[in-house]
Each structure stands twice: as structure tokens, then as C-alpha cells.
Amino acid sequence: MRAFYGSYATSARVALGKRYSFEKTLPGRSPSGTLPDGGLWATATCPAPFEGETALLTVEPLGREREKSTREEQAYERAALKAFAEASTEHHGCSAPRLP
């Protein structure tokens, strides 16, 4: 799980855009979604010093390249991202995360 705020979120979006350039839906361009290699992303709007910036929060499985997650793994990833994103965005004073 990772959380990116401010310029780090911008850099993460650029890196993910390059990694998934062949995809229609890129992390951060829509409020939330599924990563092509497995995993999920969520976003949240934040106040100063990140004002106008959108936080990017991700959960990615380790050691699986292009394997489809099982239903149980998907449920766990959603629950883990929800708990992590809610705690992280609350700590930074951001809006509630928009979750997939």
C-alpha cells in the first residue's frame, strides 16, 4: 500500500501513466479504479499545503504479474485499501477517499 500527496502524487501519476500507457483508464485520471497488473487505486482532495492536489492511494499485490486476483484476494485488496486510504486521508486532513 502506498499513499502519495502533493508533488509525489503528480510524479506517481506520471510513472503509472508510463507503466500503463496502453490502458484507457489511468490511475488518478478517474477517481478510482483497478490496476492492470492487479491492485486498486483511490483518490482524495486535500487542503493546504496540498490544496488543489489530489492524493493518490494504491494497493498492489506483490509477486504477481498479470495474474488475475481471486475473488477473495480482490475482496481483501478492497478492504485493505479502504482502511488504509481512510486513515491516511484523515491524517492529512483530506476529503473521504473515492474508492473503487
Task: Provide a descriptive summary of the structure in words.
The chain is built from 2 helices and 4 strands; from the N terminus they run βαβββα. By secondary structure, the protein is α+β, with helices and mostly antiparallel strands. The protein has one domain. It has a 4-stranded antiparallel β-sheet.
Describe what is shown at a glance.
By secondary structure, the protein is an alpha+beta fold. The protein is built from two helices and four strands; from the N terminus they run βαβββα.
- For the largest sheet, list the strands in their spatial order: 1-4-3-2
Sum up the overall morphology in one term: globular
Whole-number mean pLDDT: 83
Instruction: Tell me about the largest β-sheet.
Output: 4 strands, antiparallel
* Overall number of domains: 1
Give unreliable regions as ranges: none
Q: What percent of residues are in strands?
A: 15-25%
β-strand number: 4
Rounded to the nearest angstrom, the distance between the terminal CA atoms is 15 Å
Going by helix content, strand content and strand pairing, the class is alpha+beta
Helix content: 25-40%
Query: Could you tell me the radius of gyration in angstroms?
Result: 13 Å
The helix tally amounts to 2
Order of secondary-structure elements: EHEEEH
